[in-house]
Amino acid sequence: MKKRNYIIVRLKGGLGNQLFQYYTAYSLAKEKNYRLVLDTCNLKNDNLRDFSLHRLNINSPIINNNYYRKFFIFFNSIRELSLPFFHHETIEYSFDENIKNINRSTILNGYYQNEKYFIKIKNEMRSNFNLLNEKIKSKDILDMIKNNNSVALHIRRGDYITDVSTHEKHGACDLSFYNQAINYFSKNNPYFFIFSDDIEWCKNNIIINGNFIFISDICNSDIEEFLLMKNCKNFIISNSTFSWWAAWLASNNDKIVICPKNWFKDQKLNTLSKELIPDSWLSF
Fold first, then answer.
1. Considering the domain boundaries, does residue 130 fall inside one?
2. pLDDT digit string (tens) for 178-204?
3. pTM > 0.90
4. 101 assigned to some structural domain
5. Where is the domain boundary, 51, 86, 121?
6. Domain coverage including residue 95
7. Coil, helix or strand for 233?
8. What span, in angstroms and rounded, lies between the C-alpha atoms of 36 and 30?
9. Which alpha helices (H) appear in the chain, and where do they start and end?
10. Based on the domain organization, do 100 and 190 belong to the same domain?
């Protein structure tokens, strides 16, 4: 049987982070004609996150414990007569040109938050996600999104507010950002679809003179919210990979995406993350 090299990607973080890691690995594996394997061992020790990709019909072989991980690498190293290359992301948010030179089985370890890693397959990705609309249970909301000048408004708070270290790193977007972005769309009869992990704060602080609906009052699934958000025509996103992906995957070629100018509260990370934002997006 012909030997076939592999890409193992070590998944970490929430849905948005996992999508960056998966599609970087998928794009590389497709280009090299390598097998793709998902390593979920890190997620077993994460009390806040779990493996989310299977809910989006992303199915690849999974390594879910350290014993199987060691066996898989050992067995394949014997077959290939070489150990795998370990690619560790050294500079976050920057595209590593050397990744295209990989010529043997490889383990990817990093966040890979740069669209250059998978931009070649963007049409395939968007097409695959459009097929997932059948998973949406709230068909009436989906119809509202499609039949109006829909603007997804995503407000991320949660651990950005309650966890001290997360707050110091990320920080939450302030109210003035959302007000400025809302005002930008106000002349085109928008219908705002509001998504948040702190919907009560939104009800008490977000003021919209026009049509709006709090989606997070209706949905009890983050995947349902993600798929509904992705179907909107335009976007106001917070500093969150969850809404980054919804906006990036949206198939409306004329979409307007507004994101915060500062993705991080930590200024060093904020400088490094400039490549995270596509050139066509507006930053307020």
1. no
2. 999 999 999 999 999 999 999 999 999
3. yes
4. yes
5. 121
6. 6-121
7. coil
8. 9
9. 15-32, 41-44, 66-80, 122-130, 139-146, 159-162, 164-169, 175-185, 199-205, 222-230, 241-249, 267-272
10. no
